[in-house]
Design a protein that fits this description.
Number of domains: 3
Bound molecules: 6-phosphogluconic acid
Helix content: 55-70%
CATH architecture of the largest domain: Orthogonal Bundle
Largest sheet: 8 strands, mixed
Structural class: alpha/beta
Distance between the termini: 91 Å
Oligomer: single chain
Radius of gyration: 25 Å
């Protein structure tokens, strides 16, 4: 029997869909899973879709590895964390030098880097690959962010490029850098995803609680926006979520869904990464914080009893303001996300190209949008890592920030929480203020800790002659 082109371990929803996608693109894929029942279910699906001729089920790990052509490429799609380490440990004795493990879960990039470093001396390649697009994307074309060994990437490149989404003839799959680079970029993708979703939810809140719009009216606006500069997957699905009705009550489904957002960790990781790298990423941080606030339902109920219900009457913003506010907020958020990536690339020697990243995010992934095509073009012509300084976006910001300002101001006066949009606005204002206020911080630091400050023309590490404060209680 001829050998399979590639192997895949882990037939959960994502793994099974990726395997079917591979088979559909004309490659033979051997599949393995700890539970045999999952392999059987997968084969039923493969048969139904006429793809069983190119899928090779192997319940035994040794037989599975032997069924692959060499050098072997093995995708593992198991839960992030220990299950990945356990899988690698099981595979290692069965592999030969030159083989590669391609780990496609949402892994922490430092874990990927550790695995990459540990496998290198063994001669085993390790690719840490971010795959975005959910189950549909995995089946029909995800965005694929590859990090790891370049040589082994070339072995797997034809398959990975073939299964990825396509944007105007270009595959949305690229090798981005060594070690944890692919998973790092996927983590920041998810942070940006959190920011997009939160800003959209805030705008929905203004529509609902400030403008008194019902779900159907909001759905119509999001649908219209999807034909304009905000055109994106998340705006599209927002329109669809808002217009869905509950079969039992006939009410808008969104009104019945509990307002507590879940999270699996990548948003938090991206906020931590930004903080550790010293890059301000207020939109990502705000979005993560907003999910945490959402989870505290009981506390919110108790506090509303004390302070009254926020969202008082109608506020004076237009639908056009909301569209522009969202666009401005998104530009700030993407500026922050790309800056985090740029700093991480510098620190880790990854040589990431922001234009390439924007290009492979144009289709397949959750944050795919028209806007990313503009960003890819902007980064290609000006490799500046600060999108707010790139001419195309300067123009959009100049046009849109007054609307963001009106929405944030009206939201504040109307008691509507806009954690992401307001932090995006403050970031924008803070980032363009030549004379900031940290001079006072430096004065305070020197006052209580003699930390020193700088005066232009007089030097750094200067100190003030501050008055002594005698604590009255200690006298
Ligand atoms: C993607 C998504 C996906 C992620 C979900 C859930 O790019 O396809 O980012 O990888 O798992 O969005 O994430 P949360 O549960 O943290 O919202």
């Amino acid at each position: 029997m001829s050998k399979a082109d590639i192997g895949l371990i882990g037939l959960g929803v994502m793994g099974a869909n990726l395997a079917l996608n591979i088979a559909e693109k004309g490659y033979t894929v051997a599949v393995n899973n700890r539970s045999v029942a999952k392999i059987e279910d997968f084969m039923v699906a493969a048969r139904q879709q006429g793809l069983d001729g190119r899928t090779l089920p192997e319940a035994d790990l040794t037989a599975f590895v032997r069924s692959l052509r060499t050098p072997r490429s093995i995708i593992i799609m198991v839960k992030a964390g220990k299950p990945v380490d356990d899988m690698i440990a099981q595979l290692l004795p069965l592999l030969d030098k030159g083989d590669a493990i391609i780990e496609c879960g949402n892994s922490l990039s430092s874990d990927t880097q550790r695995r990459f470093d540990a496998l290198r001396p063994e001669g085993i390649g390790y690719l840490g690959v971010g795959v975005s697009g959910g189950a549909e994307g995995a089946r029909h074309g995800p965005s694929i962010m590859v990090g790891g060994s370049k040589e082994e990437w070339h072995n797997a490149e034809p398959v990975l490029k073939a299964i990825a989404a396509d944007f105007e003839g270009e595959s949305c799959c690229a090798w981005l850098g060594e070690g944890g680079a692919g998973h790092f970029v996927k983590t920041i993708h998810n942070g940006i995803e959190y920011g997009d979703m939160q800003m959209i939810a805030e705008i929905y809140g203004v529509m609902r609680d400030g403008l008194g719009m019902d779900a159907a009216a909001s759905a119509a606006v999001f649908k219209r926006w999807n034909a304009g500069p905000l055109n994106s997957y998340l705006i599209e699905i927002t329109g669809l979520v808002l217009e869905a009705t509950d079969g039992e009550t006939g009410r808008p489904l969104v009104e019945l869904i509990l307002d507590k957002a879940g999270q699996k960790g990548t948003g938090v990781w991206s906020a931590i990464a930004a903080q550790e790298l010293g890059v301000p990423a207020t939109a990502i941080e705000g979005a993560v914080a907003a999910r945490a606030i959402s989870a505290r339902k009981d506390e919110r109920i108790a506090a509303e009893r004390i302070y009254g219900k926020p969202g008082r009457g109608s506020i004076a913003v237009t639908i056009d303001d909301l569209e522009k506010a969202l666009l401005a907020g998104k530009i700030v958020s993407y500026t922050q996300g790309f800056s985090v990536i740029a700093r991480a690339a510098e620190q880790n020697g990854w040589g990431l190209h922001l234009a390439t990243i924007a290009r492979i995010w144009r289709a397949g992934c959750i944050i795919r949008s028209r806007f990313l095509d503009q960003m890819a073009t902007a980064f290609a012509s000006d490799a500046s890592t600060n999108l707010l300084m790139v001419p195309d976006f300067v123009q959009v910001m100049k046009d849109c920030h007054p609307a963001l300002r009106r929405v944030v101001a009206a939201g504040a006066m109307g008691e509507l929480p806009l954690i992401c949009l307001s932090s995006a606005l403050s970031y924008f204002d803070g980032s363009r203020q030549a004379q900031g206020t940290a001079n006072l911080i430096q004065g305070q630091r020197d006052f209580f800790g003699a930390h020193g400050f700088e005066i232009e023309g007089r030097g750094s590490d200067l100190h003030g002659r501050w008055p002594a404060i005698i604590d009255a209680a200690a006298e």
